[in-house]
From TrEMBL:
It catalyses: an N-acyl-D-glucosamine 6-phosphate = an N-acyl-D-mannosamine 6-phosphate. Pathway: Amino-sugar metabolism; N-acetylneuraminate degradation; D-fructose 6-phosphate from N-acetylneuraminate: step 3/5. It comes from the Bacteria. It is an enzyme of class 5 (isomerase). Coiled coil: none annotated. It comes from Microbacterium keratanolyticum. Its EC number is 5.1.3.9. Belongs to the NanE family. Keywords: Carbohydrate metabolism, Isomerase. This is Putative N-acetylmannosamine-6-phosphate 2-epimerase. NCBIfam families: PRK01130.1. One of its GO terms (biological process) is carbohydrate metabolic process.
Amino acid sequence: MRFTPAEIVDRLRGGLTVSCQAYPGEAMRDPRTMAQVAQAAIVGGAAAIRVQGIADIRAVSELPVPIIGLWKDGDDEVFITPTAEHARAVADAGADIVAIDGTRRPRPDGLTLTETIAQIRAHSDVLIMADCGSLDDAIAAEAAGADILGTTLSGYTGERPKTEGPDLELIAQFAEHCSRPIVAEGRVHSPAQAAAALAAGADSVCVGTAITHPSTITSWFVAAIAKEANE
């Protein structure tokens, strides 16, 4: 392992994780491109990088910051590193942290979250980040043995409304009821929102779209200009 668990948590705390992902079929959907985007983010001060897919994880595995790896697969509700087998592959590809679906929903392989985490632990010494959608998810994930709790799935599981920006209320709930490090992730679209997430109780903030997804960023500007032009 490149970093000790304490070193990883220390690097995350008070820092920015940049999620470097592109959707299938997009011009930037290439591991080499994502690795270059990750390198640029590190130059800007990113404390960690989050990437999706085995090829992308391998492409960034030697970068000098912790790598959060995940594998999106399947059409079921649970698709972020949905099984223990996926998680083992993510660890083997070089991730320092394996991000998994941390909800209480049924998994494709029939294992519970506790069983999934136990199988990951038996295979590798990586840290495990639980992508949660509610406080109940976070409490269950912490009890199951997750090392890090993310608000990644807030607004996507039916338990909480989809907020305009980060779910600051959920972050505060995590901080009050859980003891694991908290990563605020999901709809963080500005530096001000990132700062607000830390103020709400997050230990770290993960930003993806607003930094690494040119198509979406461009659409924000286009929509704003079109609105002004039509008034």
